[in-house]
Amino acid sequence: MSIATLGEGLYTKLTNNPTVSSLVGTDVYPGMLPHGFTGYGITYSWVDAPNDPDNSDDQGLTRARIQIDCWADRYRWCRDLVRAVDGALNGDGGAYGSAQVQTIRRVSGPTDLPERDGDRVVHRCSLDYQLTYQE
After folding, report:
1. Residue 6 and residue 116: Cα distance in Å, rounded?
2. What is the pTM of this model?
3. How far, in Å, CA of 89 to CA of 65, rounded?
4. What is the Rg, in whole angstroms, of the alpha carbon atoms belonging to the chain?
5. What range defines the domain where residue 55 resides?
6. Given pLDDT bands bounded at 50, 70 and 90, which one contains residue 55?
7. What average pLDDT does the chain have?
């Protein structure tokens, strides 16, 4: 199982969720937002790599931890996006690409981290989730 495959499944889950997609459309990116991005957006990055042998158990289940960052020009918008993402992911399961996810659960967050981009402030709210899945 590759990180890219789980990422594609995550992208599909988020962009197919009506509440999330009403806010970001398809603006869900691995790693970083595109340069000059404004409005709402989501980025994700892996905290624990899914292919690390220490993340597997004797039942064939693998754990991976992912950080989801919600971005917006206004703090309130960022918190709206956090609620939408958490509603879509926390407690979810099912097919994520070719992986069968048993459960996704939030393990930390949201953490509010405003950042400067030139003269403007961009709000970032981070959430961490643990995915338990079978390849």
Report:
1. 31
2. 0.85
3. 13
4. 15
5. 3-134
6. low
7. 85
AA identity, residue 49: A
DSSP state of 54: G
Looking at residue 29, which CATH number applies to its domain?
A: 3.30.2000.30
With contact defined as beta carbons under 8 Å apart, do 78 and 124 qualify? yes
What φ, ψ does residue 60 adopt, rounded to 5°?
85, 10
Best CA proximity match to 24, nearest among 5, 36, 37? 37
Q: What does the block give as tokens for 120?
A: 């403007």
Split into its structural domains, the chain has a count of 1
Specify the length of the chain in residues.
135
**In which band, very low, low, confident or very high, does the pLDDT at 122 lie, cut at 50, 70 and 90?**
confident
In DSSP notation, 55-116 reads GB-TTSEEEEEEEEEEEESSHHHHHHHHHHHHHHHTT--EEETTEEEEEEEEEEEEEE--EE
Give the model's pLDDT for residue 84. 97
pLDDT, average across residues 35-58: 73
* DSSP state letter for 30: E
